[in-house]
């Protein structure tokens, strides 16, 4: 046995995938790498100005992530050089994890959010917002498809989907959720809490959890053996306990309860792909302001910063026009990324918010064309011949766009047909 000595409390641990090295984080404001077989200190990662509360190692062992203060740092494990910082949290970073393929880093913070970052560039990809307390723990399923967060709001949440914007809660703890772990097959989630219990949940959020009771103080840490047969819990009562995995209790089918009725409502909100626009709400004589859950759950079209500002009580001018522009620009970005279905959705939303922004129709037409909805695209391209846009004459803007698309390696037979239709108008424009 040997000891790994810091000048302060050791509050975070991680191990390299081969088990040969250990990384520790301490409230002495340093992270350190140790030889797991001898306990020899290999090097220190210094420069933090706050306690290092979280550490993680990428699956290939090449990089180390450390969280201290409002920042996480990514280090080269060979050279010890700081590669970049993950900045943006408004509170201390208290949890970090890396996806199994090493492509993304997830951080949990006292600012009530978790954030997903590109592990190669450090760019922020998504924010996971929905907790009402600090995000104290994060874990990722073995397939990388879901993220589990534990929070001071006494809940855990499971996030999934392409943008990770949708989540479902694991409610039932009577204290902060301090630790989370996932079985190797992703079928179960284990949470540890201030309420002295750990709980084992179905990975899809179905049924009731299995309660692991016996600790006399907070459950601070949870882990699962590689074969998934045992769960280990560590507690402030100075004990660790090993539990045999057993079947989850079967859910009792009691339908007519307030809990089940609310569950149905929550599920319906989760699966609804989008909410009504302002114009549609007015059409149905509803309050123009959208419901809070549409904004909280990041439903189209209320997932823009504009709606967060509205919710916060900030005054907005020409809200419909601004959001039309947001989605028009988003449609353009999606076309450049060759995500034509998303481009069409965004363009449709932009037009719905402000039909007067006819330039968005061009992006709508581009999306329909590349989705081979040729008739719809043709009608849209020809809809506003002779109109003048900020970018120039309607016909010229479309033809210029076609040239940009060709430079990006994208072409379609309809492009040549439309250019032929516009030939006379473009000749007149050139003569001016």
Characterise this structure.
- This protein has 432 residues and is of the alpha+beta class.
- The chain folds into two domains: 10-244, YVTN repeat-like/Quinoprotein amine dehydrogenase (Methylamine Dehydrogenase, Chain H), CATH 2.130.10; 319-431, Serine Threonine Protein Phosphatase 5, Tetratricopeptide repeat (Alpha Horseshoe), CATH 1.25.40.
- Helices cover 27% and strands 31% of the residues.
- It has helices spanning 258-271, 278-283, 292-296, 305-311, 319-336, 340-353, 359-370, 374-382, 394-407, 413-421, 423-431, and strands at residues 10-15, 21-26, 31-35, 41-45, 52-57, 63-68, 71-76, 82-87, 93-98, 104-109, 113-118, 124-129, 135-140, 147-151, 155-160, 166-171, 177-182, 188-193, 198-202, 210-212, 219-224, 230-235, 240-244, 388-389, 392-393.
- The chain has a four-stranded antiparallel beta sheet, with no helix packed on it.
- α5 (319-336) packs parallel to α7.
- Mean pLDDT is 84; it is low at 250-256.
Structural features:
25 strands; 27% helix; 2 domains; Serine Threonine Protein Phosphatase 5, Tetratricopeptide repeat; alpha+beta; 432 residues; Methylamine Dehydrogenase, Chain H
Topology overview:
Elements: E1 10-15, E2 21-26, E3 31-35, E4 41-45, E5 52-57, E6 63-68, E7 71-76, E8 82-87, E9 93-98, E10 104-109, E11 113-118, E12 124-129, E13 135-140, E14 147-151, E15 155-160, E16 166-171, E17 177-182, E18 188-193, E19 198-202, E20 210-212, E21 219-224, E22 230-235, E23 240-244, H1 258-271, H2 278-283, H3 292-296, H4 305-311, H5 319-336, H6 340-353, H7 359-370, H8 374-382, E24 388-389, E25 392-393, H9 394-407, H10 413-421, H11 423-431
Antiparallel strand pairs: 1-2, 2-3, 3-4, 5-6, 6-7, 7-8, 9-10, 10-11, 11-12, 13-14, 14-15, 15-16, 17-18, 18-19, 19-20, 21-22, 22-23, 24-25
Helix pairs in contact: 5-6, 5-7, 6-7, 7-8
């Amino acid at each position: 046995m040997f000891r790994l000595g810091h000048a302060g409390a050791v509050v975070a641990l991680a191990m390299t995938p081969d088990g040969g090295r250990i990384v520790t984080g301490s409230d002495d404001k340093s992270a350190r790498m140790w030889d797991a077989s001898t306990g020899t200190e290999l090097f220190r990662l210094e420069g933090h100005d706050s306690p290092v509360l979280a550490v993680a190692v990428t699956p290939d062992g090449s990089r180390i992530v450390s969280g201290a203060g409002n920042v996480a740092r990514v280090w080269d494990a060979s050279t010890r050089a700081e590669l970049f910082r993950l900045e943006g949290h408004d509170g201390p970073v208290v949890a970090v994890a890396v996806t199994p393929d090493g492509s993304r880093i997830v951080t949990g913070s006292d600012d009530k959010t978790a954030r997903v970052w590109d592990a190669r560039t450090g760019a922020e990809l998504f924010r996971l917002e929905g907790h009402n307390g600090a995000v104290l723990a994060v874990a990722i399923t073995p397939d990388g498809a879901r993220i589990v967060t534990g929070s001071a709001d006494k809940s855990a949440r499971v996030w999934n989907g392409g943008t990770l914007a949708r989540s479902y809660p694991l409610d039932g703890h009577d204290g902060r959720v301090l630790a989370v772990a996932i079985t190797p097959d992703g079928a179960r989630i284990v949470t540890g809490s201030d309420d002295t219990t750990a709980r084992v949940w179905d990975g899809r959020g179905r049924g009731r959890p299995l309660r692991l009771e016996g600790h006399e103080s907070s459950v601070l840490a949870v882990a699962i053996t590689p074969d998934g047969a045992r769960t280990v819990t560590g507690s402030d009562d100075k004990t660790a306990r090993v539990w045999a995995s057993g079947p989850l209790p079967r859910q009792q089918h009691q339908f007519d309860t307030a809990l089940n009725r609310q569950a149905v409502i929550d599920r319906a909100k989760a699966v609804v792909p989008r909410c009504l626009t302002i114009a549609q709400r007015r059409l149905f004589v509803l309050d123009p302001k959208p419901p809070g859950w549409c904004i909280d759950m990041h439903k189209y079209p209320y997932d823009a910063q504009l709606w967060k500002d509205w919710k916060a009580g900030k005054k907005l001018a020409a809200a419909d026009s601004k959001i039309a522009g947001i989605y028009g620009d988003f449609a353009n970005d999606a076309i450049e990324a060759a995500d034509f279905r998303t481009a069409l959705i965004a363009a449709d939303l932009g037009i719905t918010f402000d039909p007067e922004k006819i330039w968005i129709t061009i992006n709508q037409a581009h999306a329909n064309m590349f989705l081979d909805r040729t008739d719809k695209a043709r009608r849209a391209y020809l809809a506003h011949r002779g109109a003048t846009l900020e970018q120039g004459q309607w016909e010229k803007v479309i033809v210029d766009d076609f040239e940009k698309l060709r430079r990006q390696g994208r072409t379609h037979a309809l492009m040549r047909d439309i250019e032929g239709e516009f030939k006379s108008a473009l000749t007149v424009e050139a003569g001016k």
